[in-house]
Amino acid sequence: MKLYHSDHTRSFRALWALEEVGASYELVMMPFPPRATTPSFKDENPMGTVPLFLDGDTRMTESSAICQYLAERHPEAGLAVAPGDARFGDYLNALHYGEATLTFPQAVYLRYSRFEPTERRLPQAAEDYRLFFRSRLRWLDTQLLRGAYVAGDAFTIADISTGYALMLARRIGIDDVLSPAQHDYLERLAQREGCQRALARQVGQ
Predict the structure, then answer these.
(1) Residue 125: CB partners within 8 Å, gap ≥ 6?
(2) Prior bond to 123 cis, omega within 30?
């Protein structure tokens, strides 16, 4: 297996998942954004984005899907929830909520507060999407009233999807919108050995 990754981007989900399942893999670090810094990367991934995950003939570019793939290909890690389990709906919802609902407004916030040239930045749009992110966190609070993790009392691969969005919020300075329960949840995730190994791998340790 091989993962193309840039520091602290969405591909961290895949890196963390690889560490949690205990897989052997090759890590290829890419300067961000790879489509601009490494044009030849488009030969591997025409979108020029990370993650790019390779496993034999399998090629994947969606971070949450890679997490699901790894959890289901490595059932011994105990990080997937089976369809017959009462937690299955919460598990699937959280797995996709992390990217589709939480990371999307963060990406817009970053674009219009930092990534665009100064003359194209839109402070009001950035603030609107910061508040949009805050409103979309409400579902997570309802889940954390029911257990320590998004699908109950046990950590699953869905916590990587959701947890990365909270880590990104902290990294870009909008974690003031997190509730006390969400801060506590983030700390639980950050203490996991798999998360700590993934953080060390991306800086070459």
Answers:
(1) 108, 112
(2) no
Rounded to the nearest integer, the mean pLDDT of the chain is 97
Residue pLDDT, tens place only, 51-99: 999 999 999 999 999 999 999 999 999 999 999 999 999 999 999 999 9
Domains and CATH numbers, the chain: 2-79+195-202 (3.40.30.10), 88-192 (1.20.1050.10)
Query: Which residues are CB-contacts of 34 (< 8 A; sequence separation ≥ 6)?
Result: 4, 6, 41, 48, 49, 50
Phi and psi at residue 53, to the nearest 5°: -120, 130
Checking if the pLDDT of 17 tops 70, the result is yes
Cross-strand partners of 26:
2
Give the sheet arrangement for strand 52-55, strand by strand. Answer: 26-29, 2-5, 52-55, 58-60
- Measure the CA–CA gap between 183 and 186, rounded to whole angstroms: 5
